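Regression test case RT-17, inverse folding.

Input:
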């Protein structure tokens, strides 16, 4: 992973886009968004979640990408989307239809109407971040709460909130129509924290480099499925502080300090669990495991 990026705060607003600007790719394999999440009915999920592009599928004869959302203690959630003609379409399961969530063909004053939300383009332009030029839209949500006001959209990243004014509380999830900023009423409060691909990271709030570089080393869990014994092998020298198991309801059922990586799980019922590693800086890693008789 590259070093943290310093944002160049001097940027220009344009009513059109320059011919030398290179379009940033939407939904490229390996892209990762990180969000700080609060709200909802399960406090165990409060913290940093990731959304990752990691696979292909076809829906209604349309080639699509799979985006997987990784919460902390509950099961990953898969979404399907595709990009075409400077726009992004996401599949809405409830309506069995694709809906547009981004459109860089829009001009100032235009409105994008989606099934569950709409926004008006307030300004457009180009911003330079660590060697890359990004087209942007600044948008407003009519009649919405102030948690949506003056939200930025960067080409390839989607909603990023308003990091240039250090507003850390804006709802800014890539698939905004699925996660509203209404906490337990309608879902999570999901706030953008960083974006990365194979050779780039944008971390305006200085939280994600720590989470990625120091707190989530690669690790293996074996055997999986397991019976009454489990081993965890960590890549590198960093070790987690403790290990926790949550059942499918998100209830903690077992916890132990991390010592030699071997754990006795005798007494736990067969079923699916979420294994959570808690690192010394309080970041976490989660893996689903299965216990069998």
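Golden output:
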């Amino acid at each position: 992973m590259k070093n943290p990026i310093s944002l160049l705060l001097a940027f220009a607003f344009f009513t059109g886009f320059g011919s030398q600007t290179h379009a940033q790719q939407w939904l490229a394999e390996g892209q990762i968004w990180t969000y700080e999440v609060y709200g909802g009915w399960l406090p165990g999920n409060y913290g940093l979640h990731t959304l990752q592009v990691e696979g292909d599928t076809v829906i209604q004869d349309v080639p699509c990408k799979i985006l997987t959302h990784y919460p902390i203690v509950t099961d990953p959630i898969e979404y399907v989307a595709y990009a075409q003609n400077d726009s992004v379409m996401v599949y809405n399961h409830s309506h069995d239809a694709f809906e547009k969530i981004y459109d860089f063909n829009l001009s100032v004053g235009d409105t994008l109407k989606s099934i569950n939300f709409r926004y008006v383009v307030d300004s457009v332009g180009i911003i330079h971040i660590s060697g890359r030029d990004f087209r942007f839209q600044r948008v407003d949500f009519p009649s919405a709460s102030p948690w949506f006001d003056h939200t930025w959209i960067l080409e390839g990243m989607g909603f990023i909130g308003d990091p240039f004014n250090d507003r850390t509380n804006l709802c800014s999830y890539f698939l905004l129509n699925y996660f509203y900023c209404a906490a337990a009423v309608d879902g999570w409060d999901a706030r953008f924290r960083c974006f990365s691909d194979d050779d780039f990271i944008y971390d305006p709030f200085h939280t994600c480099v720590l989470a990625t570089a120091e707190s989530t080393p690669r690790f293996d869990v074996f055997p999986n499925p397991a019976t009454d014994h489990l081993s965890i092998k960590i890549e590198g020298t960093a070790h987690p502080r403790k290990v926790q198991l949550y059942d499918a309801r998100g209830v903690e059922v077992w916890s132990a300090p991390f010592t030699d990586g071997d754990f006795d799980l005798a007494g736990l019922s067969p079923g699916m669990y979420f294994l959570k590693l808690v690192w010394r800086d309080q970041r976490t890693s989660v893996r689903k495991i299965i216990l069998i008789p």
